[in-house]
Amino acid sequence: MKIYLSGKMTGLKPRQIKKNFKRAEEKILMTFGNASIMNPAVTYHMSSTKEFSYLDWLKIDFAMIDACDAVFLLPNWVDSEGAKKEIVYAFSHNKKVFYPSFNGLFYKECDEFTKDIVLKETKKSLKKIADDKEDQLLEETARKILGF
Question: Do 66 and 93 form a contact (C-beta atoms < 8 A)?
Fold first, then answer.
């Protein structure tokens, strides 16, 4: 299985980002055994350049999700607007989405019930995206998930 990791990066120190994403990789390998992991944290050091906008990075993240079978949420996904956008994108492109269990020791796939919970958590972000006319891709994705 090809897996994309999704979690909070903005506002964290590079050392903490690396630690969080590495820990997620280890848990995924413990849970699923052999997996190919697409870790966006390896490109984080490049985000300091002013030549790439936030939208550029989202498009890169979406391309990475396209190449994967599933998206795995880090425990801090709730605190990340970018991760919420990645979740919306993943759901709208029929990707499997996995979330950490309550105790954080393993991952579970989102069923319809948990998908509804995850989408309710992202609703504020979705409305913000749907109102944003700057990027057609994000707007269409948000509208598709929200159903309008």
Answer: yes
Q: Is residue 99 part of a domain?
A: yes
Q: Is residue 138 part of a domain?
A: no
Do the Cβ atoms of 117 and 133 come closer than 8 Å? no
Determine the Cα–Cα distance for residues 15 and 18; give it in Å rounded to an integer.
5
Task: From residue 9, give the alpha-carbon distance in Å to each of 39, 108, 112.
Answer: 12, 22, 27
| CATH number, position 66 | 3.40.50.10400
Write the Ramachandran bin of 32: left for phi over 0, alpha for psi from -120 to 50, otherwise beta.
alpha
Task: Please answer whether residues 94 and 69 qualify as being in contact, where contact means their C-beta atoms are separated by less than 8 angstroms.
Answer: no
Give 78's DSSP letter. Answer: G
DSSP string over 4-63? EEE---TTS-HHHHHHHHHHHHHHHHHHHSS-EEE-GGGGGGGGGSTTS-HHHHHHHHHH
- Cα 95 from Cα 71, distance rounded (Å): 7
Q: What's the total number of domains in the chain?
A: 1
The pLDDT, as a whole number, for residue 148 is: 42
Tens digits of residue pLDDT in 6-23: 999 888 988 899 999 999
What is the domain range of residue 16? Answer: 2-121
Expressed in angstroms, the distance from the first to the final Cα of the chain is 33
